[in-house]
Design goal:
24% helix, alpha/beta
């Protein structure tokens, strides 16, 4: 696996495509007050959230967003959602310690369809329906004591084990089925055309 600390100068581009689907290992500190929850994410038909927290890398002033895993949350905006709205649920335990996190980089933010334009529903405290890079950057800038130079343009989906009670799950890579079917049809038609000309040319020689 790659290490962002050691590979920082080797892959000196923030082009997300350079990192997509790579297995990466990082050392850093969890940034306090940055945990957010992506609502309406199910696991085995159970409603819940994906838990994201910012990690400041140990050897450079850069920030990496980590999808730490999936946790249970009752559906809807009920009283039990208060800890999610306040950002006080599933917090990292090692908030003052250096941690080693391993995972898979994904550039796809896996957005869900938004059925409303009501901002109070789309983003209720730390309980969000979707994420985008602008909103994540604004959240980091709101932390007055946090200094950083760059934010890495991918989400690290954690695979290493930690004692936070979250379930690790890696998103399936999207496959463009229609594109592959198009290639298959194209080659089939070319094969039919080749057989047709071979038959015609064979008939002319006779």
């Amino acid at each position: 696996s790659l290490s962002l600390n050691s590979e920082f100068t080797k892959i000196n581009s923030l082009d997300a495509q350079n990192w997509d689907q790579r297995r990466i290992k990082v050392l850093g500190y969890w940034v306090p007050n940055t945990t957010i929850y992506l609502d309406n994410r199910s696991h085995n038909a159970t409603s819940g959230v994906h838990v994201l927290s910012a990690l400041k890398l140990k050897e450079n002033d850069s920030i990496l967003w980590v999808n730490r895993g999936w946790g249970i949350k009752p559906p809807g905006f009920i009283e039990k959602s208060k800890k999610f709205i306040d950002g006080k649920k599933y917090l990292p335990y090692e908030i003052k310690d250096i941690v080693e996190i391993e995972g898979i980089a994904h550039i796809d933010l896996m957005k869900r369809i938004e059925l409303t334009s009501d901002l109070s529903i789309l983003r209720n405290g730390r309980l969000w329906q979707n994420i985008d890079w602008s909103s994540l950057y604004q959240l980091l800038e709101s932390q007055k004591s946090l200094d950083f130079d760059i934010v890495w343009p991918f989400i690290l989906w954690q695979t290493s084990k930690t004692s936070d009670g979250l379930i690790r799950s890696i998103p399936k890579v999207k496959v463009d089925v229609s594109k592959h079917l198009g290639y298959a049809v194209q080659w089939f038609l070319l094969s039919c055309l080749a057989i047709f000309f071979a038959w015609r040319l064979g008939g002319v020689r006779d």
